[in-house]
Amino acid sequence: MFRYLAFVWNPEHLGPSASARDLCETTEQHAAWRRVLSRPGLQVYAHGETKGINESHRLHKDRGVILGKLFQRSGLESGMGPLATHGDFDQAASDEILSHGGQSLVQQFWGRYIAFLSDKDGRHSVLRDPSGTLPCFHMRRRGVTLVFSWLEDALQLLAADEQARVNWEALQAQLLCGPAIGRETALAGISQILPGERLDLLEGRSTLLWDAIRFARAPLQLPYQDAATLLRQTVRSCVQAWASCYDTLLLRLSGGVDSSIMLSCLAKGSTPADVICLNYHSLGSNSDERHYARVAAARAGRDLLERAREPGFQLERILEMARMPDPVPYLGWMNSSTDAGLGAAHAAPALFTGAGGDALFFEIPSWWPAADYLTTRGLDTGFAAAALDAARLGRVSVWRAIRFAVRERLSPDQALRATSGPALPFTPELEAHKVDIARFSHPAHGEAQGLPIGKFTQATALMQAIGYYDPFSQDAAPELVNPLLSQPVVELCLRLPSHLLTRGGQGRALAKRAFEDDLPALITRRRSKGGMEEHIKAVLSSNIAMVHGLLLDGELCRRGWLDRERLQAQLSERPSIRSASSSQIHALVAVEAWLSRWTS
Questions:
Q1: Could you give the CA distance from residue 481 to residue 239 in angstroms, rounded to a whole number?
Q2: What are the φ/ψ torsions at residue 506 (nearest 5 degrees)?
Q3: What residues contact 220, with CB distance under 8 A and at least 6 apart?
Q4: Which of 196, 480, 534, 558 is the most exposed place for a label (fewest CB within 10 A)?
């Protein structure tokens, strides 16, 4: 489990210097931590380094260190696999990185990394890579700034009176508006550095070196087949680059388009890595996709493991999860023990998934691509075809698609761009709470408002980094790798117009065209999408007594944020037009379980 810790302070001040010395000495008592950079006012430690997977790359004369995995962009455009960078940086490369504050890292490299940089004046900064794969949080204690990826590491260094407390305003914002993509977390005094952001660690000034909106605002106008060719080339290069890091890996294969595309890039003979596919299934109308997974695995020449999702998952486990700065959406981690066991049994240190494909390849059933076309291309000869495709995609008449597109072009509907949380039984007092959107949003959110509605939705969805650490299995878990969310793939898909991504009125149309020669026809023709709603409902039912106690007697009800009577009715499964879904109830359980770790 790769992690890092850093301490930053003003070396001219005696108090912070003494505090920093104590923190460093405490850290160095644990042999697992290795000091990878030592500068006046900056000490950086790494844990779990693995050659070729997660390493530390020093800049010349120890003027900085880059932690994680780096790939060079060289060769990506020509179809060659990106070159991995091994070892430290020479003086010329270090000077280029430092002279532009890390900008050349963002432009010439990609991967999974955190960079600590020291300029000629001794100022220290940290840069989180645009994928945001490695978490990056910071807090200030006793005059020292702690920068860390894993909260438990930081908490072990703090005295009892320094422990974190709930940031109630931030939690309110998350409940009402959905998961936060801004800097504040749900713990007071703990902030995150955003993907693509550089932060001056002494003065607190931040600079966004990369954000999704800039790419969404620069559309590529390419012929359809050229766009498909470029998409295939970019995805294959990134997937195979990640696979080159591992001798053996697990690939979660649902049988859907995204995971099947991933597998096609890792077919037998395309990479030296031994790829073992893993399919989870359960009872339900769309929860058993083994047929699709078997066809995809056979086409790629890879072994397939099939495992049932366990409906008897015990929700008590979430009360013992690792402490995180925000509530953990645990539904995606319920197979954690099986993942860890299979990873160990097959000596596979990584688990690849096709996460991110819905937003990247535009699986959004709406008329929005017609509005995007009208906004970016105007009323030209191609608009009629774009409107027809959008009508099919959004399942509306072509005249409605045209009318909505024209209305959106003349007077954009800001309600479509408003974020919202799940439809839960909140009290009128909480629902009336005025959230300071600017405070809790991504700093580029204002600029995003000017995007066409389809691109706005795609770009804002891709601003949210996916969890990296397994909150259940932790050290025992295989490393999570989501190659589709690699920086070059994200940048390309943001620049491809939504009407191109959905040509013919199909979600993922361009992605299917790009990989049609690599996928079984059964997959490319597939219109259904798998899910696990019935499994989620079964887990809720088998844990309903625990859920009753946790929610009805929990902190949210005590604070008057949840309507206890409505919640009790929803938990009793009495039908109502205002009933929350099982996944929404699970979202409340996640918040209450998280709160129990901080309010006890």
A1: 10
A2: -120, 135
A3: 227, 492, 495, 496, 497
A4: 558
